[in-house]
Amino acid sequence: MPRIEANGRTLEARRGETLLETLRRGGIRVPTLCHYEGLPPTGACRLCVVEVDGLPNLVPACSYPVVEGLKVHTHSARAVNARRTIVELLLSNHPDDCLYCARHGNCRLQDLSEELGVRARRLPGTRRHLPRDVSSPAIVRDPDKCVLCGRCVRACQEVQGVAAIDMTGRGSGARVDTAFGEGLNVSSCVNCGQCVMVCPTGALTERSHLDLVEGALRDPALTVVAQVAPAVSVSLAELFGEKPGRDVDGALYALLRRLGFSRVFDTAFAADLTIMEEASELVRRLRDGGPLPMFTSCSPGWVKFVETFYPERIAHLSTCKSPQQMLGAVIKAHFAARAGLEPERVFSVAIMPCTAKKFEAQREEMLEGKLADVDAVLTTRELADLVRRRGLRLGDLAPEPADMPFGRRSGAGKLFGASGGVMEAAIRTAHHLVTGGELADLKVEAVRGLEGVKEARVRLGDLELGVAVVSGLGNARRLLQEIDAGRRDLHFVEVMSCPGGCIGGGGQPIGADPAALGARLQALYRIDGAETVRTAHANPAVRQLYAEFLGEPLGPRSHELLHTHYDARTVLR
Amino acid sequence: MTSRTIPTALDPARARELRREAVDVPVILIGTGTCGLGAGAGAVLEAVRTLPAVQRRGARIVEVGCIGLCALEPMLDVQLPGRARLCFGRVDPGKARTVLDAMLGEGAWPELPLFQFPADGLQAWDGVPAIGDHPFFAPQTRLVLRNCGLIDPRSLDEYRARGGYEQWLRVLAQMTPAELCAEVERSGLRGRGGGGFPAGRKWRFAQETAAERKFLVCNADEGDPGAFMDRAVIEGDPHRLVEGMAIAAYAIGASRAYVYIRAEYPLAIANLSVALDQARQAGYLGRDIAGSGVDLDVVVKKGAGAFVCGEETALILSIEGRRGMPRPRPPFPAVSGLFGCPTVINNVETLANLPELVRIGADGFAALGTAGSKGTKVFALSGKVARTGLVEVEMGTSLADVVHAVGGGVPGGKRFKAVQIGGPSGGCIPAAHLDTPVDYESLKELGAMMGSGGLVVMDEDNCMVDVAKFFMDFIQRESCGKCIPCREGTRHMLEILQAITRHPRSEHGHMALERFQGVVNLEDLAGVIKDASLCGLGMTAPNPVLSTLRWFRDEYEAHIFGRRCPAGVCTELLSYRIDAALCNGCSRCLRECPVDAIVGEPRRPHTIIQERCVACGNCVTACHRDAVLVS
Ligand SMILES: Cc1cc2nc3c(=O)[nH]c(=O)nc-3n(C[C@H](O)[C@H](O)[C@H](O)COP(=O)(O)O)c2cc1C
Ligand code: SF4
Ligand code: SF4
Ligand code: SF4
Asked: Given ligand 3 and candidates A148, A168, A175, A184, which is best to mutate, with the most ligand atoms within 8 Å of its CB?
């Protein structure tokens, strides 16, 4: 155990850790900007510089390996002056429009200038006036607000394995940009929003649909309906200052009604519907010989990833639409008719933990010569903004149930919010489809938890399936490489674009730590455990929809409304 | 592949011939390095090839590298059988014909040669100084450059005839890697790429780190503006680098080495590639070299062309095919470098020192130079000096000797002001300190740096604020943009320097205040940039500003408070007046003035309204009668 001395105190370090880790464990706070838990350190921002006895220059704590006997001064005049100057330099060409910024109040740059006591514009500077990139249906980039911390680049490259954005240019012309400086829409970006999640400033935000939704809500000619994804109810409360892991399911429906939505549906119902179709598709592929492994298709970032990087694997993607799109389709095709509404006058809003859902709702196949399944997508964050705009508070509301016919869900459907949830739900139902019976223990432990890659062998009667669950597209890419290299033991693979699944989606509260993800995950498991109906096939609302309208899974109507197709994509890389 | 048989030692007579200590036909040598070609050596070569006298006498034409006297390029040497080799400078095709007609005809010269190369058994020419007595060469000690300009860089045998590859074979046969590291450490050789880190110590770290693969990288990125030392060595004597690399690679246990070289150096790349092929063919490189069991391959990697790619960690990423951006150290490359393996990165000149170092031994090498700086240093001498060029002097030689003796002093009767040494990371040293010896510590003490070897002489016509601005502009465009102090800080320093040199009339609102605050901020920013930047580029970037501030503060004050540029360089701070006696009222200036500050009737003397003038200087260029006076 190396020991170091920091500000006169002795700290025990662990072998192989960085100075920053030792200091943090010892309760010494050194400010950081480019550092992000889980991303490799780059030592770029230099905010964590500290003075070390015997070294001529300040050293960055985030990337400096601890060694026995270091004598460190974290808040010497020299170190503090360097940090403050660095923040002043950043502010000197930053647009002074905090009051109009989506990240006002939740901005690392604001925090730092506060913490370091920057109270005057000492260094005047010239603005960059770089154009905003508004080309993407999901993500907006405002390079003027970028501090070049490189977190987004690392998230996109190292976590997601996409590398849609990179540092380009030199000197003061350096910036984060897409290939050839063309828009994000023609890049390999899959719209996952993980870059937004790590950006310390307002340089990356989701493309807002708030005004669109508010307009619709005020339009008397429209019936505005909402669907809420499973992961939203276990994270929304955090945006109102509550601890992670609280489920606000019922209050959320009440809130949406106050906001003016005519009907509020539960996307978990559609998750059950997805499982009916997808489990049936899996069983059919197993019977007909493939193509296997079958990949889930409910994560739109993943779907675009396959289309872009692995077009030869498109046939492995389940043809099922995602729950959002399935529900959107049956809202317009079935609910509208039942309620005596013209589908054109139904405005369908999806509230999602995800930015890629905005892209998915606009995919051409979803629009082809017909009405959009979903008209607008709000992220969890946008919903919280809408609530605040209307002067509402989450805590004030008594729980209410969702609306029928799409208001009932099974525990399995709710599990869709976490990595492994689709797999667990599918196993429950596939087991039923194959054997006619139910699993003795519905809990499939092997696919639970936050790990990026989980694998299991599952018995369905006399079939044994190899299944894998991956979250984070970097992990997905590695698995695909294994499959390309000849791996043959897998039959079914669940992929969620975002680490941890939708609970860690790109539309969720910014800056969640692993502990918060864990709390959201446990909340979902608790909800599933407490449900009376825990399998998709036992959901009476789903059975009723098949009986009344759809017929049977994979039947002609399902095929028309609930399934889709994919195309290879050419993008700029 | 099994080991090739190393060629046997050259026959002494053949060696003499290769060294041109005896020639049977006239030999014509033309310097066709990049600098020579730039000065017109290509046309000279063409002219010489077609000259009847040359064909009649069956003269041999040899292309050689640069001997270093750039000011007198193109150079043409003639060696007649039995006579010493003569060198003529500033040759054009016409002069080449005259010289050769005379020399090959009656064996006399039409005009005095620059110098001759005396050699045993060759009859010297009367009245021609020996190269060793020429003022440019006399103060020099040429270890690295010893063959440059003398040999045909594409001939392995010419290199061998001068002892080439002997040291490599000797080391391989007689020394262990650890002994070799110790020998080099003892010699005191320090890195010539800028940092001055002891080469032997760096090797030892890598040698002692256990790893399956290790790499040697030769840094030939040479990005400093105005630097061309490494290029000249590679073009003029590529085998010396190859031999040096072989020695270094053996010392650290690397069986693969890279030369990372600027893509803008096509001739160097070509000559180096030829040399590598020859060395492989001859068995100096390859598998089981000379039966020793040691393998070595050397690969040429073309650089991406960015200055920062010369920084070692950025260079490693660039070789790996990624964006060249520095990363924090530790880990140092000697422990974890290319592909995560122990990697030693050395500069061209560092490596090219090795054959000679090994030949004369650690003690012989350490006898050259000062206590802390051993051996020699090559400089690219340029600027306001009579003889610009490539010079190699013993460490400890005074700057005055370099400027005045080698360089021949400031021409045109102007007053010497300063030398800029070390390029963008270095600084300016004023006249008062010209007796400073060239060594790492002394230069650092004065706020400059040895750097890689740029040495620019400045006279009274150079504005030191302008010099600082030039380097700041360079740095702020070449910074990789990764870390904030360097990226934003250097931009700020540049903006402040721009404010200082901006015309009073273009100064709006708060700009004057910024100008006054500027100097205070300059020093503060400089401190933070040096202290907190990630790589050497940022850590040294403020030096050009700090050193000029230190020695030429009065010039800054004249710009800031007096709003004038004493050297008359910063155009915006000059004032312009029309001399009524010279002006014929042609109105050319009037038409070129962007702000209508010039008035006057046609064919009557014009006037500049000072309150309107923005000091763009257009009128000066427009006037055909030099009637616009600048002060
Ligand atoms: C911005 C920057 C540019 C550099 N460029 C070069 C270069 O062009 N050539 C070089 O040999 N070293 C260059 N260096 C120094 C290298 O990082 C490294 O220290 C050197 O190659 C080591 O070799 P040496 O020990 O033999 O000097 C540069 C350093 C910095 C920070
Ligand atoms: S949204 Fe995802 S894929 Fe697109 S740039 Fe951001 S991290 Fe990369
Ligand atoms: S966009 Fe955001 S995360 Fe990316 S480099 Fe800029 S400030 Fe950092
Ligand atoms: S000091 Fe400059 S060149 Fe070096 S890493 Fe920082 S920004 Fe890049």
From this structure: A148
Give every CB contact of residue B544 below 8 A, 6+ residues apart in sequence: B420, B424, B426, B427, B428, B467, B468, B471, B472
pLDDT in tens, B263-274: 999 999 999 999
A49-52 and B628-630 strand pairing = unpaired
Question: How many Å apart are CA A184 and CA A141, to the nearest integer?
Answer: 9
Superfamily of domain B156-365: NADH-ubiquinone oxidoreductase 51kDa subunit (3.40.50.11540)
Pick the CATH number of A211-562 from 3.90.1720.10, 3.40.190.290, 3.40.50.1780, 1.20.120.140: 3.40.50.1780
Cβ atoms < 10 Å from Cβ of A27: 9
Query: Is the minimum distance from the CB of A193 to ligand 2 under 6 angstroms?
Result: yes
Residue B290 and residue B168: Cα distance in Å, rounded?
A: 10
What's the pLDDT tens digit per position in A33-57? 999 988 989 999 999 999 999 999 9
Q: What are phi and psi of B524, to 5 degrees?
A: -65, -45
Residue B386 identity: A
Residues 6+ apart with CB under 8 A from B415: B459, B460
Q: What is the pLDDT of residues B357-405, one digit of tens each?
A: 999 999 999 999 999 999 999 999 999 999 999 999 999 999 999 999 9
Average pLDDT (A503-513) is: 92
Give the C-alpha separation, B559 to B469, whole Å. Answer: 13
Mean pLDDT of A129-140: 94
CB B205 within 8 A of CB B335: yes
Q: How far is CA A173 from the centre of its chain?
A: 31
Q: Which CATH architecture has domain A128-207?
A: 2-Layer Sandwich (3.30)
Calpha distance A109→A115 (Å, rounded): 10
Annotation marks residue A502 as catalytic: yes
DSSP annotation of A102 reads T
* Residue linked to tokens 């997808």: A278
Nearest to B484 among A41, A46, A125 (CB): A46
3-state secondary structure of B336: coil
Per the annotation, the verdict on A318 as an active-site residue is yes
Q: pTM score, two decimals?
A: 0.90
Q: Which of A89, A416, A33, A30 is nearest to A227 (CA)?
A: A416
Name the amino acid, one letter, at B406: V
> From the list A42, A81, A92, which residue is nearest B492 (CB)?
A92
Measured in Å, residue B264 CA sits from the centre of ligand 3 at 34
How far is the C-alpha of B625 from the C-alpha of A459, rounded, in Å?
100
From the CB of residue A484, how many other CB atoms can be counted at a distance below 10 Å?
A: 11
Write out pLDDT tens, residues B558-608.
Answer: 999 888 899 989 988 888 899 999 999 999 999 999 999 999 999 999 999
